[in-house]
Amino acid sequence: MEQKEKYDIVIIGAGPAGLAAAISARESGAGDVLIIERDTHPGGILQQCIHPGFGLDYFGEELTGPEYAYRFFRKAAEYDISILLDTMVLSLEKGYICAVNPQKGMFEVNAKAIVLAMGCRERTRGAIKIPGTRAAGIYTAGTAQRMLNIKGELVGRKIVILGSGDIGMIMARRMTLEGAEVRAVVEILPYLSGLIRNKVQCLDDYGIPLKLAHTITDISGINRVESVTICKVDDDKIPVRGSEEIIECDTVLLSVGLVPENELSMDAGIKLSAATKGPVVDQFMQTSIKGIFACGNVLHVNDLVDNVTRESQIAGKSAALYAADKLPQMIHINTVAGQGVSYVCPQLLACTEDEADLFFRVRRPMNKVTMSVLCNSRIITSRRSARVSPGEMDKLVLSKEMMQAVNGDIIISVKEGNE
């Protein structure tokens, strides 16, 4: 590939978000599009997700992670989208990226618009400060998944998993299928962190115990993990004395949350949300710096790759319009997390006549709820749902007619029963 110095669109990250954004940009009229990826292969996290369950919403069929990624990679190739692999972006600013790779050394790329699609990373033992020895045999669930599914290495035989996030539950099933014994999945919250379907398919179907409102209070082992101590926790997540239980194991997998990869964003001066840890954007996925857009898990952690794809298509289209000087200057209003809601994305709403999708997560599991969008104490739209959970993203859509009725900050609230 002949490396050019100037592109219409440069996208950082060749995972599902970056690939979808690139394709959307080309379909929206962008000329030269470049994706920069630090890994040696495109596809992002989907490369190691060999289990089925992807694409049910977007494609209407069940695919594995590599199958889902390949459909977009193939389309990117058809559109002659350049992908620069094994390349690390060092810094960025409006219209400019500095990167490095083994072939070119340090080099610069200019772009009319930039899309951030760097994904997210796992929280580690250091982030949650589990006491105990520094023994071998402690991994994040994603690391264990990569070692098993890509490198063919089983990290342990007797496993305890901390956290009921989706990747943790999926790895509980995966390790069981490889002959390991998953002794328990331990969750500090009194409810599930991931999708219910993963609990049913990955834990219940294999008889793997789930211990809610529990946490690991100690890891023991000389050279390698030999056991963990788990405890019940109270409503303040404080371990309850006298509830200790020792579980013998040789491996601990951590599935304790994901954090958007935003070191580049911070260095560039992009405004970040305290709730999502990702950039503050409007419904066109434009950040606080004009010409820089964000999508996927770098923006907020999604539970379904189908949501990532649709969100990234908006970012790619918006970037193409900006590069062509066709994205209008707009006045923004705020979107606010109201009763029962932990965050809303996008955080800003441009006053246009186009419809807008508002994604949000609730604070706790609730049944028989009413989800409402309010403006100046007036309900613009609402719908009911039998149940909601923090582990599953929810969405409300503002139609063109509803957008015309917006004349102030938007509040999303979720009320249970007769609240």
Radius of gyration: 22 Å
- Helical residue percent band: 10-25%
Q: Into how many domains do the coordinates divide?
A: 3
What percentage of the residues does DSSP assign to strands (E)?
A: 25-35%
CATH homolog superfamily of the largest domain? FAD/NAD(P)-binding domain
The average pLDDT score comes to: 94
Which structural class do the helices and strands define?
Answer: alpha/beta
Please give the CATH class of the largest domain.
Answer: Alpha Beta
Provide a short characterization of the protein structure:
Helices cover 21% and strands 34% of the residues. The protein is α/β, with parallel strands linked by helices and 419 residues long.
Task: Offer a few descriptive terms.
Immunoglobulin-like, FAD/NAD(P)-binding domain, five-stranded parallel β-sheet, 419 residues, alpha/beta, single chain
